[in-house]
Design goal:
The complex is a heterodimer of chains A (172) and B (238). By secondary structure, chain A is mainly alpha-helical. Chain A has one domain. Helices cover 68% and strands 2% of the residues of chain A. Chain A has a two-stranded antiparallel sheet. In chain A, strand 1 and strand 2 form a beta hairpin. In chain A, helix 1 crosses helix 3. Chain A is globular and about 55 Å long. The two termini of chain A are 31 Å apart. The C terminus of chain A is likely disordered. Chain B has 2 domains: 52 residues; 168 residues, Glutaredoxin, CATH 3.40.30.10. In chain B, strands 1-3-2-4-5 form a 5-stranded mixed β-sheet. By secondary structure, chain B is of the alpha+beta class. Classes of the chains: A mainly alpha (172), B alpha+beta (238). At the A-B interface, helix 2, helix 3, helix 4, strand 2 and helix 6 of A face helix 1 and helix 7 of B. Chain B: InterPro entries: Thioredoxin-like_fold, Thioredoxin-like_sf.
Chain lengths: 172, 238
């Protein structure tokens, strides 16, 4: 057996557990992101407004709704319910976030991304972290991508509804 | 023989079709449920935020016409100062440049509008930004905004803690010569909480995303040192 075929033989046993890790990892990201913002919805609106993309009134509504949507996505992924849809929604949201940060960067704004709480303009002497923030979001995007391609993972409501034949109908 | 094999084959195909149909239905319904959860979550956030907002506000004595800040001085150049009483950089600004601002006011060069915004409520466990800003409204009502603000910066609590208690806020007010009982009831009744919200919202609308932010005739000043401020005011006064 060559090394690559050995790997290919191991993949079907490893993949479901990688999927669980990706699902729970992404769930944690959303729960933390939503949890740090949900206590101060006005501040969340200000963080959205600081990007200077949306009109103020729209930004406050987006800022108020976003933490709850993030928490809901976290719960869906934690349960493994409608995993592919939740992963797709996560990916779309992350693409929007990356675009927002890139846009702030290109316009020379000096803001905190507000990804996990805080947000708004940085204190004097602090410099923005746009590069690492975008890389981090791309990492999260990779988790979402994995779940989009292979949404069926063990220990999930989706699996339970399907009769726990986790490996039988993975390609649905 | 071959016909039975054919029937088995046909039955298998039918079974598979039924199974596919069940899977399709299941996916559809879980998707509908998940989308509903996400939409409802968003609506909950929106409705909580809307219910938190106050309808009207009362600005304290000495506020500007827009009710977005407290005015000091009447010089030709307008200086806007956006400050949050828990923000360490605001304390540093007060210590470094507060005296220069007072001087510019007494020289009749500037009209200063102080905007006590509550941007940093999450940096204390008791929403100290909002509480201290509303308290500064009570002080403005008693004609001592500046004195009170200076005292608040002097006794600034660290970020991440509970901030100063309401009793401490009252003690500080009494310390700068405000009527203790009147101030205490103003603070307790939250007379200027809605005003704080108004000040904060209008600052955010004006594109002020951090504290301290200093505007001289509407232009943001990058150099907030005494020399930088004087230079900006001189330039704007020409």
């Amino acid at each position: 057996m060559t090394l690559s075929s050995e790997r290919a033989a191991r993949w079907p046993t490893v993949r479901p557990w990688l999927g669980v890790a990706a699902r729970l990892g992404l769930a944690t990201v959303w729960l933390v992101a939503g949890g740090t913002k949900v206590g101060d919805l006005a501040a969340s609106g200000r963080a959205v407004n600081a990007y200077q993309i949306l009109p103020y009134d729209v930004a406050t509504v987006v800022g108020a709704a976003l933490p709850f949507v993030e928490l809901a996505l976290g719960v869906l992924l934690l349960l493994g319910l409608a995993t592919r849809l939740a992963a797709g929604f996560s990916a779309a949201l992350l693409v929007v976030f990356v675009a927002g940060i890139a846009s702030a960067w290109s316009r020379g704004l000096s803001i905190d991304c507000g990804c996990f709480g805080s947000g708004g303009q940085l204190a004097a002497g602090q410099s923005p972290n746009y590069g690492p923030e975008i890389l981090r979001d791309l990492g999260f995007l990779a988790l979402a991508g994995f779940l989009l391609i292979w949404p069926r993972t063990p220990l999930s409501v989706d699996g339970a509804l399907a009769g726990e034949n986790t490996l039988e109908d993975v390609d649905e | 023989m071959s016909s039975r094999k054919g029937r088995n084959e046909a039955a298998r195909v039918v079974r598979e079709q039924l199974a596919r149909e069940r899977r399709r239905k299941r996916t559809l319904w879980t998707s509908v449920a998940a989308v509903a959860v996400l939409v409802i979550a968003g609506l909950i956030g929106w409705s909580i935020y809307s219910s938190q907002r106050s309808d009207g506000y009362t600005a304290p004595t000495g506020a500007n016409d827009a009710g977005t800040g407290v005015v000091a001085g009447s010089g030709p150049v307008t200086v806007d100062i956006y400050e949050d009483f828990i923000c360490p950089a605001c304390q540093q600004f007060e210590q470094a440049s507060g005296a220069t601002i007072d001087q510019l006011i007494s020289e009749g060069k500037v009209r200063v509008v102080y905007h006590p915004v509550a941007y940093l409520d999450r940096f204390s466990t008791t929403k100290y930004s909002t509480r201290s800003s509303a308290a500064s409204g009570c002080a403005a009502e008693g004609g001592k905004y500046r004195e009170y603000a200076k005292a608040l910066f002097e006794k600034q609590p660290p970020e991440g803690g509970a901030g100063l208690s309401d009793d401490q806020l009252v003690d500080i007010a009494a310390g700068v010569g405000l009527d203790r009982d009147g101030f205490a009831s103003c603070l307790r009744e939250g007379t200027f909480k809605a005003w704080t919200e108004h000040v904060t919202e209008e600052a955010s609308k004006a594109g002020i995303s951090g504290t301290p932010t200093i505007l001289v005739n509407g232009q943001q000043v990058a150099d907030r040192s005494p020399e930088g401020l004087r230079a900006a005011v001189e330039a704007a006064g020409k």
